Here is the input.
Amino acid sequence: MKNRVEEMRKYLGLNQDEFAKAIKVSRQTVSSIETGKYNPSLELAFEISHFFGKKIEEIFIYERGKKNEEK
Here is the structure.
């Protein structure tokens, strides 16, 4: 799943540590989300979307892969 977290965080002028503190996670979690190595829980995705004042689907972009298309 792709996301726009880094883009939106930088737009607000926040570094990863500041953003992590604001959403109550570690800086490493923010880094992993931004690089696509970790998909946040639904609760954290809502927290992030609330922080930015956006809908979840405006931040997190789900792309169906071949694995899902075969079903």
Remarks:
- The helical segments are 5-11, 16-23, 27-35, 42-52, 56-59, 66-69.
- The mean pLDDT is 93.
- Residues 42-52 form the longest helix (11 residues).
- The radius of gyration is 13 Å.
